[in-house]
Amino acid sequence: MEEVKEFVAFVLKKNGFRVIKDFRCPLGWIDVAGFKRGFSVGIEIGNPKNVARKLLSYPFSIRIVLCEGCSSEFEGVTVTDLRGMCDALGIDYDPPFEVWLESRKNRDYELYRKAMELLKEKLSDDAVARRAMDAIVYLYMAEEVIEDYSGKVSEKIPFVRLFPTLIECGLAIRDTKEFVRPKTFMTSLTREGFRVAKVAVREKLRKVDEILKDFREEILFVIVTGLAERKGLVLKDADVEEIEVSGGGLDEIYYSVLPVFAKLDVYEILKMLKGLDPLVALCRLLSYTVFYREAKNLFERLFEVSLASKVPVYDYYGEFFGYEYRTSKEVAEFLSKRAYAEIDERTVLKFRNVLDLAFLKTSKTKDLEVALERGIVRERRGGIEVVDEERFGEFIKARMAKIAAEAVESIFSSRAP
């Protein structure tokens, strides 16, 4: 797939498009986006059922899914092959993909090979050299690792003993700052290390399909959609009570999830969901409540095959406050193409309405009407204001729990016979 993506980018550039690979859209990443004089195209590679929704979340002039022998029921999405893509865009299919692939000199793979040989030479052990390559991937996922020797970090940083070798090989760089005391070191990849890491990730992605056999694609969809950040997936370490939800009626699910929502800080929830697309916001809330254990298990499994990092994180003042899991957008894209769930649009609309109330927007919704009747909020010139902070928080959490239960019921009933 990576070669197809590179070829699509090559063809678009050749025909005058400004090209962005891994283009961020409201519901994830688009493989390739092209822009030219007021015209735009979004191109995804994979099963239309799994990727069309992402394309439809951004106002491209034309949306294309590359999938040979597939058909699409999604209005506004063209499903075709590479030649059909060029025909749809009115551009030249020259050279053909097979010719381009044969003649292509993959400099990144050559750099990867040379880096591995250098690591073997420096470390005098093939197994340790492979661990050093895992360290490169770890740094790529983490972006930057702070080596904190203050004693506050409870877990050892993986691969830290191999960082000096990576620096010696020109694959990583180390900086020092008076970030916390004692002085700390910050390690990140060089440009060459970054290129090597991207190849290493492609090689490791072959291991993911085996992991995904243990996860329902509907739950995977929720996790990938909800935890998407600018550079990949992020899951913060959180103390969330485990919930056993395997189906059942709406009321049964609701009363299963309500105790977890009751313990949440409503303003921490709103901080986490602010500015997100309603579907993404709902999936993020589910990922940190109902499906948190599944999300953490997924990241742990990815961590085991060096496709995720668990890194210490710090606040604005440099104080350590916990850990988070991170994985790159290549991994996120790979997962998203294997994940799909139907969440009722009416459920998503209900969630948007409760978010409008939570952020004190003057949308005329049933939630606002009920909150006004109960004296939880009141209208004033230019908007609404909270009358009772405690009751307001409880009302918002109860509504979110109900909508989360509806979404879960929708997910678990999607495979019902």
Provide a quick synopsis of the model.
The chain has 417 residues and is an alpha+beta fold. 49% of the residues lie in helices and 18% in strands. It has a five-stranded mixed β-sheet with strand order 1-2-3-4-5, sandwiched between helices. It has a four-stranded antiparallel β-sheet with strand order 9-10-12-11, with helices on both faces.
Question: Can you tag this structure with a few keywords?
Answer:
14 strands, 5-stranded mixed sheet, 4-stranded antiparallel sheet, 417 residues, alpha+beta, globular
Q: How does this structure look, described?
A:
This protein has 417 residues and is α+β, with helices and mostly antiparallel strands. The chain has 18 helices and 14 strands. It has helices spanning 2-14, 48-56, 82-89, 97-103, 107-123, 126-142, 163-168, 191-204, 208-212, 217-226, 250-262, 266-273, 278-287, 292-304, 329-336, 345-358, 366-373, 389-413; strands at residues 18-25, 28-36, 39-45, 62-66, 78-80, 145-147, 172-177, 184-189, 228-229, 232-236, 309-314, 320-328, 377-380, 383-386. The strands form four sheets. Strands 1-2-3-4-5 form a five-stranded mixed beta sheet, with helices on both faces. Strands 9-10-12-11 form a four-stranded antiparallel beta sheet, with helices on both faces. Strands 6-8-7 form a three-stranded antiparallel beta sheet. Helix 6 packs across helix 8 and helix 16 (345-358) packs antiparallel against helix 18. The mean pLDDT is 88.
